[in-house]
Design brief:
mainly alpha; 7 helices; disordered N terminus; about 70% helix; about 240 residues
């Protein structure tokens, strides 16, 4: 059998039994991503408020606690950071559940064509090193399996949305780690300003990343919804 052959047929009852709608999880994920965007905006505004206070200080090596009013602004900034972390964790859990749902459906649409096992849908986000590219690769495989046009159709859209989303995700992650490390150890005005600058840049990147993620969630959810509604296409052979 030609490994690149494509077979199109209405799904059997057995296949329909394992297909599950991603619409509910997709909606929940989109709403939580919206909450992440809101907390990013609050964190960015609070960070800018603290940065503006410290920027006006004449001695960048002065201790933080010598600046009038800094404790209140720092507490507010830390509080919004904690709120952001809570929504990040909740969003991450629901997002992975949504991705598992899509991965299971994609296995029905194109059985045996995914480059990583089902368990990597979750582990790929937390295992060091491989988390730099596994989530993107798994999402690409789901995209290819779920698109009605098929992986070899001439009018099949490219991976620009996935690449943009992943690029912003990596950029904000690295900048956030650097800014957080400096902020946690800073005891004077200068290092704190550097950390705030990095963390505000991370917030901006994360807002863009979350907007792209909402678009990705809505697009993939719609693609699979159409496949299920119009009749699943079962394909054989590895994806290119």
């Amino acid at each position: 059998m030609n490994t690149n052959a494509t077979r199109t047929a209405a799904p059997s009852p057995a296949y329909l039994a394992v297909l599950r709608s991603p619409v509910g999880l997709g909606l929940a994920t989109s709403l939580l991503l919206g909450a992440v965007i809101a907390t990013d905006v609050l964190s960015l505004a609070s960070g800018a408020h603290l940065y503006d206070l410290l920027r006006g200080m004449p001695y960048d090596r002065a201790a933080l606690w010598t600046v009038p009013g800094v404790e209140g602004r720092q507490r507010a900034y830390d509080l919004f950071g904690l709120l952001r972390s809570v929504f990040y964790l909740a969003t991450g859990i629901v997002y992975v559940c949504w991705l598992y749902r899509l991965r299971d459906n994609a296995e029905v649409f194109a059985p045996g064509t995914h480059r990583h096992g089902r368990s990597w849908t979750g582990w790929g986000w937390i295992v060091p090193v491989v988390n730099l590219w596994f989530p993107r690769r798994i999402t690409l495989d789901i995209w290819e399996a779920s698109h009605p046009a098929g992986p070899h159709a001439p009018d099949r859209p490219g991976h620009g949305l996935i690449n943009l989303w992943w690029g912003f995700w990596l950029a904000q992650g690295f900048i956030s780690l650097a800014g957080g490390a400096v902020y946690d150890t800073a005891e004077s005005i200068g290092p704190t300003n550097v950390a705030l600058g990095l963390l505000m840049a991370s917030d901006l990147l994360d807002i863009v990343c979350a907007v792209l993620a909402v678009r990705l969630v809505r697009t993939l959810t719609h693609m699979q919804h159409v496949r299920v509604r119009e009749g699943a296409t079962v394909r054989e052979g590895p994806l290119s």
